[in-house]
Amino acid sequence: DRTFDDAGRVVLERTTTNGDLIREEVFDYDEQGCLVGSNLTLTKGRRSSRRWERGPDCRSVRETVRSVAGKTTVIESTYDEKGNPVSETTLREGATRPGVITWNYEYPAAVVPVAPPSEGP
């Protein structure tokens, strides 16, 4: 079962079985219409949440995830001038082995074909 706002975005998603709540997720958007948060409630009141900090183009620059176990993961992303991902760093806090994982992305330079020299008569 989904509920939408006037802009057609999902603001509530609810799953039930025989009338019992199984899963409910509430979505939040900023003034630009970018998804900036979600709160998930599962059976027995277990909760998790996600929060996004967005750049001017709506791309996520920082995502904070709080699991049902209360552990937090932070994902920071950077982009090049074309909007391609450049790096993504994940910090897991409260885990049995907290750590930082960084991914760096590289893109090959565009190759411009060169016409062979023409031979004269």
Can you tell me about this structure?
The protein has strands at 2-4, 10-17, 20-29, 35-42, 47-54, 60-66, 72-79, 85-93, 99-104. By secondary structure, it is mainly beta. The protein has one domain (2-104): Beta Barrel (Lipocalin), CATH 2.40.128. The protein has a 9-stranded antiparallel beta sheet with strand order 1-2-3-4-5-6-7-8-9, with no helix packed on it. It starts with a strand and ends in a 17-residue tail after the last strand.
Q: What are the defining features of this structure?
A:
mainly beta, 121 residues, Lipocalin, elongated, 9-stranded antiparallel beta sheet, 9 strands
Layout of helices and strands:
Layout: E1 2-4, E2 10-17, E3 20-29, E4 35-42, E5 47-54, E6 60-66, E7 72-79, E8 85-93, E9 99-104
Antiparallel strand pairs: 1-2, 2-3, 3-4, 4-5, 5-6, 6-7, 7-8, 8-9
On the 0-100 scale, what is the average pLDDT?
Answer: 87
Secondary structure category:
mainly beta
Q: Count up the domains.
A: 1
CATH architecture descriptor? Beta Barrel
Round the Cα radius of gyration to an integer and report it. 22 Å
**Series of H and E elements:** EEEEEEEEE
The poorly predicted ranges are: none
What's the story with the biggest beta sheet? 9 strands, antiparallel
Report how far apart the termini are. Answer: 76 Å
Please report the number of helical segments: 0
Helix content: under 10%
